[in-house]
Amino acid sequence: MSLRIDAHHHFWQLAARAGHWPPASLEAIYRDFGPADFEPLLEQCGIGGSVLVQSLPDSRDTVALLELAARHSFVRGVVGWADLKAPGAPRQIDALACHPKLKALRPMLQDLADDNWIDDPALRPAVTAMLANGLAFDALVVPRQLPALLAFARRYPALCIVIDHAAKPLIATGQMEPWRTGMAALAELENVHCKLSGLWTEATPEIGVAAFEPYVATLFELFGAGRLLWGSDWPVQRLAAHFGDYAGWLSACEDYCDRYAGAEDKDAVFGGNACRFYRLEE
Fold first, then answer.
1. Which of 25, 193, 223, 236 would give a disulfide with 162, using CB separation of 3.0 to 4.6 Å?
2. Separation of CA 104 from chain center
3. 50-84: per-residue pLDDT in tens?
4. Which residues, in sequence order, are CB contacts of 57 under 8 Å at separation 6+?
């Protein structure tokens, strides 16, 4: 069995997040979260490493995450943030990429007012710098932003792209479209991958677990086991405690893999794909 990787989780300190999500009303995640909280979960579940993902649009936050990663060997890679349209974006990317654990960048597209922000030739200098430094691109999008992401992915076929949380389909209302059509178009591009993560938090407690089946089945149909990366989205996953905990989400996804791909594909979905996509050292 290859190294198992949690391809998507966060750490944060509330003192550094004034005015940013999460609000105090989300009691399950309204506190500091760090390595001491997370590492025991990895050990209990047999996960050998992780990818730490930014959650603030601030390069100082990325530097702090990289410093954490340098002190904790289980963090195999970091997905950071940079102002990709700033005049100095290439220099900023070059500086961040000097850290060996920076593996990708993620603009927080879901929070931007302009759904077409990513479909802009002005991003070319930043993307050129990303490619020169061997960095991938995490796409934090919602279904309405998929057409713009498709245009971006077609413009840069050499850029490795992964869609976070399967683009957050509208599971709570049972809608498949336009999510499915948008994801199908993206899946046709070989440079586009997808994370099997964050789905439980897209539904309400009243919805049974069977409601997730058509969405997960669609992901395996479109991307196959070769382009799906498992991630927990911890500690955000704690908001879905009514469905299960960290181990419960892992177990559910293992069952999905057995049904829609096969036991032989588990190594890829639960680690191999993440190691390849993010260039992680085992």
1. 193
2. 10
3. 999 999 999 999 999 999 999 999 999 999 999 99
4. 81, 83, 107, 108, 111
